[in-house]
Amino acid sequence: MSERAAPFHCPYCGDEDLRPSEEGHGAWECHACNRAFRLTFLGLLTRGLTERSPHETSDGGAS
Length: 63
Hints:
The chain is mainly beta.
């Protein structure tokens, strides 16, 4: 398995001064706005597993 993915920007202030937190897997600290946050993978969406019908548009709606 590959290494964990790292966020590029803080979701609160947009700064790039992020460091892994000691709180555990997926926890990050932003040293620009002094916030801590956690990223988690929730799972796959079922709509991503179905084939798109030929008459659907690119935004997922029917034409």
